[in-house]
UniProtKB/TrEMBL annotation:
Key word Membrane present: no
Membrane-traversing stretches: none
Species: Cafeteria roenbergensis (Marine flagellate)
Domain Ubiquitin-activating enzyme E1 C-terminal, first and last residues per copy: 932-1073
Annotated keywords: ATP-binding, Ligase, Nucleotide-binding, Ubl conjugation pathway
Active-site residues (renumbered): 633 (glycyl thioester intermediate)
Family membership noted in the UniProt record: Belongs to the ubiquitin-activating E1 family.
Pathway field: Protein modification; protein ubiquitination
Enzyme's top EC category: ligase
Name of the protein in its database record: E1 ubiquitin-activating enzyme
């Protein structure tokens, strides 16, 4: 049907030409409008070393119409260390672009991937560029050579002067630094600058006058900013504001803002349920050419007035890198395209002089320039770039590959494009002189024509060997895990004879994974993630020593991940998507004193955290606040946001198609036992609901056919969208006033609803009935007819079904969260007893029929578009929104919220794992906190914030401790969670002996000894609180622990304990105790 069929469009998994199954997580980030633009885009990527292949991979996963690759250079051995789609068999035989295209096309069958053959048969020309919407120039050509900058400037000028400008991007990684440049023409239009959901606030008051002053409810900050545009809805008394026109706000405070609009004649504001919503207004953004930005890289209207500075401990570094890159380009132009020779002092000195000459000429020309003066050029920065320019740090290539692919997506008008240069370095990865891994002389940088040439050329042969011999544990092989495995294979981590990478993940591959978990293919769906990912990574580098497990990491698997396993590791990398597992791994790493690198993504946002033993705080030391839950009253009767409606519909699904059917099945299997137990339910309303629900389910199961399913769906519509709404308005009429405050009841967040009467002419009504009926049929084993969604058939079935008139009932409904009234009707007890009697009668008289009933509860599954689950929730939540005049949302948005889907895209994942790779390289030096960086980034708005990790939290002495309510002495002073006291004992050591040992060594009195059993802290010895514990003093510690339920595997020879102790001056805090036996 146009209606029900629209509601069920997901059956094909496609909408507007977009595969909503494959792109579900990406749609959650970009939205359907951007996806529609993206799938029409044609992109050319020139250069297929590290940055180029990462950009191609990320972009192909995103789903443009076509991705064309160009790099006719024949594959070299060193390419295998940065382009993971090149193989040993390609070396010296196959062009980079042809070999890469064959593999990139496997990533997404919807994208046309090919290698370009130039129009002139020789090299790239403007005739080739004219075929594309956007072109990306990355590192290309034979090792040690680059395309002249003058050619890039000419190509850029051609692109920006077309009638419809062709987007132009340049990206390069030179050694341990990288850059990106972007030009979208003189009048690029941004439709959504940040991709955030529009904020909505409830209005408490509007003061009219020459300047209109708006106040919002003071229970929550509205989140608006100066310069935002807003739209008003449901304003009473000042109806002119409801015209739907965006209005610019100013003078923003936490709970208010002004509008430069004279509202003197608009009337007086009436307290109501008015809202104000942020809206996105398109705005143009102008760019300058690659040539023009050379001397003035910062746009005049840039709010920061400087190049993007990701790391403010390096303020000014981006400008120095800009000069260094320009100087290298000048050097190449003077040397036939050749880059400076690696680690060559003469070439490096020449590049430094070129940098100074460039700046001198810029200042001497009389033209405006932002370049530093010659004397302010930092020679060490320029030399660092020059000496390593021929090599490529793969981690930086991954980072810039994520950034650049995201910039390509921004050509659609979504998000804020880069203006216009971005530089980042990882100089800290180079071991300092004197460090055991620092190259002793230039000979260590000599390359030998292998896949590890980039690593050797950057860090030296001994450092490369050190990386190859590391033992790494990767927890998770989803989106992050796939990227990590690829990065490990490229950098050689765990690739030596003594190296090892262990990866574990208990999940299997799903269709929706293929859009960003790039190691998987359609034929892998249903297989183990860890196994497939490990095999794919090993194919990229056969040297990789990788072991794949399907075992979760947690307290229940400590026999698998035992002391020997953890003790043998050099590094742990988390690729998890839940906090509980992260906290467990973090705690284990603290215990075993192993470095841990954390990371996570959410749409275009991502973060990294370095956990280094004794140097930084751990992941568990700081946690994000828990998300606010929706109050029950808001959910049941007073929604004011679409999220409330969707959660309500999800609960309706659970109650109608899962819980009630499960309860009916339980009754079928043990009738009298179930009835007796249910009658003991203390809440009368809940008791009634359960019993009536089972009566209804048993009745339907015994007589259901398709018509009955449609009738029941029609009744559910009438109950939820008409009768219950009428009852709510009966209890609280629209003119109801709070007797205590005198404020209208239906104001603020409380929106007066409007009942919906079922109509066969309303597509949304019929769509709800169709999907509801199909779910009911599935519950009771009824075949769903092929014309289940036919509009005429549904109209015919529902047209004659009665719509009972509303009859008010004596029902208590809470007026808000502060209302302590007990909800329900005055006949709940009576109706519950009647229902119980009816069920007993059915059990007695129809035992055989009851036992034979087919009852199948729905198990919610968000990614199966044939099961009606998301379709029902979308229909139900949008009808609920219509009741309350809340804007409805498309199906894919409902799916994301109801399915608790974490929006995810390949670009962010690739970028953040690149940053993690940089931190991994640092952990194998002598770690210093000033070298590490935690990062938060948001690719949507080009926000990169790097900072030193926090040091570990110290326990210090206090004159007054709020927990102990007295003085507290720390022993030793300033100990951290990384510290512990180790007691060498034996299996025979008694509790008293352990107590005395601790007391003597720490010079304290022991008050409590506690252990953790199955995640719960229990007192093992606390005689002051539990005198019975005196009997444990003569018993072995190990026996007492086992008696308390502690699992002590044969290989575990220790017990961790917490101790509460004191001395004559008061309480004493000491580190945890490790009792070894």
């Amino acid at each position: 049907m146009a209606a029900a069929a629209a509601a069920s469009s997901a059956a094909s998994g496609a909408a507007d030409g977009v595969d909503t199954n494959l792109y579900s997580r990406q749609i959650g980030v970009y939205g359907m409008e951007t996806m529609g633009k993206l799938i029409a885009m044609k992109v050319l990527i020139v250069g297929l070393k590290g940055v180029g292949i990462e950009t191609a991979k990320n972009l192909t996963l995103a789903g443009p119409q076509s991705v064309t690759l160009y790099d006719p250079t024949v594959t070299e051995a060193a390419d295998l260390g940065c382009n993971y789609y090149l193989e040993a068999s390609h070396v010296g035989k196959v062009r980079r672009d042809e070999a890469s295209a064959a593999r990139v096309k496997e990533l997404n069958s919807y994208v046309r991937v090919s290698a370009l053959e130039p129009e002139n048969g020789k090299d790239l020309s403007t005739a080739d560029l004219a075929k594309f919407d956007l072109v990306v120039f990355c590192d290309e050509g034979p090792a040690g050579f680059v395309r002249p900058r003058s050619e890039l400037e000419a190509f850029n000028e051609f692109c920006r002067t077309q009638a419809t400008p062709i987007g132009f991007i340049v990206a390069s990684v030179r050694g341990v630094s990288g850059m990106a440049f972007l030009d979208f023409g003189d009048a690029h239009v941004v439709f959504d600058s940040n991709g955030e959901q529009n904020r909505v606030a409830t209005i408490s008051n509007i003061s009219n006058g020459p300047v209109t002053k708006v106040m919002t409810e003071d229970t929550k900050r509205h989140g608006f900013e100066d310069g935002d545009f807003v739209v008003f809805r449901d304003v009473e008394g000042m109806d002119k504001l409801n015209d739907g026109e965006p209005r610019k706000i100013c003078n923003v405070t936490a709970h208010g803002f002004d509008i430069e609009e004279d509202s003197s004649s608009y009337g007086e504001f009436v307290v109501c349920s008015a809202t104000v919503e942020q809206t996105k207004v398109p705005h143009p953004v102008a760019f300058a050419s690659y040539a023009d930005r050379r001397l003035n890289p910062v746009p005049a209207d840039d709010p920061m007035g400087c190049l993007i500075t990701a790391d403010y401990s390096k303020f000014g570094r981006p400008m120095q890198l800009h000069v260094a890159y320009a100087a290298v380009d000048n050097f190449a132009a003077s040397n036939g395209g050749r880059l400076p020779k690696p680690h060559d002092e003469a070439d490096a000195a020449a590049v430094v002089e070129a940098a100074k000459a460039l700046c001198a000429a810029a200042h001497a020309s009389g033209a405006d320039t932002q370049l530093p003066k010659p004397e302010d050029v930092e020679a060490d920065v320029v030399a660092m770039v020059a000496k390593r320019a021929v090599y490529e740090l793969q981690s930086l290539a991954a980072f810039f590959g994520g950034v650049v692919a995201q910039e390509v997506v921004k050509f659609t008008g979504k998000y804020s494009p880069l203006r216009q240069f971005f530089y980042l370095d990882a100089f800290e990865t180079i071991a300092e002189e004197g460090h055991e891994l620092a190259a002793k002389d230039v000979s260590e940088f000599a390359v030998t024509g292998t896949r590890y040439d980039h690593v050797v050329g950057l860090f030296g042969s001994r450092y490369a060997e050190h990386l190859q011999s590391r033992k790494v544990f990767l927890v998770g092989s989803g989106a992050l895990g796939c990227e990590f495995l690829k990065n490990f294979a490229m950098m050689g981590l765990g690739c030596g004879a003594d190296g090892r990478v262990t990866v574990t993940d208990m999940d299997n591959i799903e269709v929706s994974n293929l859009n960003r978990q790039f190691l998987f293919r359609p034929e892998d769906v249903g297989k183990a993630k860890s196994v497939c990912a490990a095999a794919a990574a090993k194919a990229m580098n056969p040297d990789l020593k990788v072991e794949a497990l399907e075992v979760p990491v947690g307290p229940d698997t400590e026999s698998t991940f035992d002391d020997a396993f953890w003790s043998g590791l050099d590094l742990v990398t988390n690729a998890l998507d839940n906090v509980k597992a992260r906290l467990y791994v973090d705690g284990i790493c603290v215990f075993y004193r192993k470095p841990l690198i954390e990371s996570g993504t959410l749409g275009t946002k991502a973060n990294t955290q370095v956990v280094a033993p004794f140097i930084t705080e751990s992941y568990g030391d700081s946690q994000d606040p828990e998300e606010d839950s929706i109050p029950m009253c808001t959910l049941k009767n007073f929604p004011h946001a679409i999220e409330h409606c969707i959660e309500w519909a999800r609960d309706m699904f659970q109650g109608a198609f899962t819980d009630s059917v499960q309860e009916a099945a339980a009754f079928r299997d043990a009738p009298e036992e179930w009835v007796k137990k249910t009658l003991e339910e203390p809440n009368a309303f809940t008791r009634r609901q359960k019993l009536e629900g089972v009566v209804n389910a048993i009745d339907l199961a015994g007589r259901a056919d398709w018509r009955t399913c449609v009738e029941e769906a029609r009744k559910l519509f009438h109950t939820h969208y008409y009768t219950n709404i009428c009852q709510l308005l009966h209890n609280f009429p629209k003119d109801y006033v709070n007797k205590e405050t005198g404020v209208p009841f239906w104001s603020g967040h409380k929106r007066a609803p409007q009942p919906l009467e079922f109509s066969i002419d309303e597509p949304e009504h019929l769509g709800f009935v169709a999907h509801t009926a199909a779910l009911i049929a599935d519950n009771f084993g009824i075949a769903v007819p092929s014309n289940w969604s036919d509009i005429e058939a549904l109209r015919e079935l529902t047209a004659s079904m009665p719509q009972p008139a509303f009859v008010p009932k004596a029902v208590v409904i809470k007026s808000g969260e502060d209302d302590d009234a007990v909800e329900g009707g005055d006949d709940d007890d009576k109706v519950a007893v009647e229902a119980a009697d009816k069920l007993r009668s059915i059990a007695a008289s129809m035992a055989a029929e009851l036992a034979a009933l087919k009852l199948a509860a729905a198990d919610f599954e968000k990614d199966d578009d044939t099961n009606h689950h998301i379709d029902f929730i979308a229909a139900a939540s949008n009808l609920r929104a219509s009741n309350y005049r809340i804007p409805t949302v498309p199906r894919h948005r409902v799916k994301i919220i109801a399915g608790k889907i974490i929006p995810a895209i390949a670009t962010t994942t690739c970028a953040v794992t690149g940053l993690v790779g940089i931190e991994i390289l640092k952990t194998f030096r002598v770690p210093k906190i000033e070298a590490f960086r935690n990062t938060f980034l948001n690719l949507a708005i080009n926000m990169y914030a790097m900072s030193e990790p926090m040091p570990p939290k110290k326990t210090v002495s206090k004159e007054y401790d709020p927990v102990t309510m007295g003085p507290l002495r720390a022993q030793p002073e300033g100990f951290t969670p990384w510290d512990r006291i180790e007691i060498d004992g034996s299996e025979a050591m008694t509790v008293a002996e352990l107590r005395d040992n601790i007391a003597a060594s720490q010079k304290v009195d022991i008050d409590i000894l506690s252990v953790t059993v199955n995640g719960e802290t229990k007192m093992m010895y606390a005689p002051l609180f539990a005198p019975s514990h005196r009997a444990r003093e003569t018993r072995p510690v190990v026996d007492v622990c086992r008696e308390m339920g502690m699992d002590l595997p044969e290989k575990r020879r220790y017990v961790m304990m917490d101790v509460a102790c004191s001395d004559s001056d008061g309480d004493v805090a000491v580190p945890r105790i490790m009792f070894k036996f």
